[in-house]
Amino acid sequence: MSDASNEAFSQALVASGPSPVRPQRMHLFGQLVGSWRAEGRYLDEESGSWSTYAFDWVFAYTLGGRAVQDVMVAPSASDQSVLEAKGTTVRVYDPVLGAWRVNWFGAVGNDFCTLVATGHHRDGIRQDGTQTDGRPIRWNFSGITEDSFHWEGWVSDDEGKSWWLEQEIDATRAE
């Protein structure tokens, strides 16, 4: 693909702000638009050990301002000096459903999740859905301020009767 084609694609995908249709609804995830420096912890289910990692998490309005999309960027596993996109989440408000449709595409790890976010939950945003293996998941953004937020990923092995923490991330605004 040529540089001109890449530029045309980027201009078509990324929007300068929220769509004028339902701008208040767009704020739910729109408050995250920008660049963040993130520190995460991930539980290896087999070993029971936690690993830590750092990455950049970039959020933008996309699709004519009708979506909020993020990209997680971290050093490559094979070459730490090379950054690569690990995955992306697309969030689109569905006025018929009255909720946000959320889809994670983890291209590097072959991990794909589908969730629904219905709005504010306590001091943040709750998203419920299923992960690649069909187990229920719950993703929560909490403690959202202009400069920071906390994110947790929960998994259920018993159809939502109980939950265990698989991943958590603390992010601070980079710009």
The share of residues in extended strands comes to: over 45%
Taken from the alpha-carbon principal axes, the silhouette is globular
The radius of gyration over CA amounts to 16 Å
Write down the overall mean pLDDT.
92
- Adjacency order of strands in the biggest sheet: 1-2-3-4-5-6-7-8-9-10
Order of helices and strands: HHEEEEEEEEEE
Identify low-pLDDT runs: none
Distance between the termini: 30 Å
Instruction: Tell me the structural class.
Output: mainly beta
Count of distinct strands: 10
Largest sheet: 10 strands, antiparallel, barrel
* Total helical elements: 2
Which quaternary structure do these chains form?
Answer: single chain
Helix fraction, binned, reads: 10-25%
What does it look like?
This protein is mainly beta and 175 residues long. It has helices spanning 3-13, 23-30, and strands at 34-43, 50-62, 67-75, 83-94, 99-106, 111-121, 124-130, 136-142, 148-155, 164-173. A ten-stranded antiparallel barrel has the order 1-2-3-4-5-6-7-8-9-10. A hairpin with a 5-residue loop joins strand 7 and strand 8. It is globular, with a radius of gyration of 16 Å. It starts with a helix and ends with a strand.
Give a summary of the structure in a few sentences.
It is built from two helices and ten strands. It is mainly beta. The longest helix has 11 residues, at 3-13.
